[in-house]
Fold this sequence. Notes:
5 helices; alpha/beta
Amino acid sequence: MRVALHQPDIAGNVGTILRLAACLRVGVDLIEPMGFAWSDRALARAGMDYAAGADVSRHADWDAFDARVAGRIVLLTTSGGVPLPEARFAADDVLLMGSEGSGVPDHVHQRADLRVRIPMAAGFRSLNVAVAAAMALGEALRQTEGWPA
């Protein structure tokens, strides 16, 4: 199981996801360009010292990432998709999150093997990307019995 972030904009969110991934022993793919410098202090502040323990792969662009992805791409999206409680995950899935400001472009949306949305109360657009990653990853690990021992 891996988490992939497509052109993330906010260093603090990436740091939080790196901390989550390190604690759960899940790899992270960062698809560039990113909206901040990799050494940004906000990244370190949110990830604290946990981020250094994360298995991170950086990809120059979407095509470089897509050429190396091994499992299914499961896109978390606010537009359509299977509700999270109904989605079925596999142990080698890559949970893909779009950038905070623009999501993912159409060609990335179309490439996804599965599109999943987190049901929310009416009138709200979206959750914070790190919160959404934690919710989806938790369900995926539960289903695949992938929680660390």
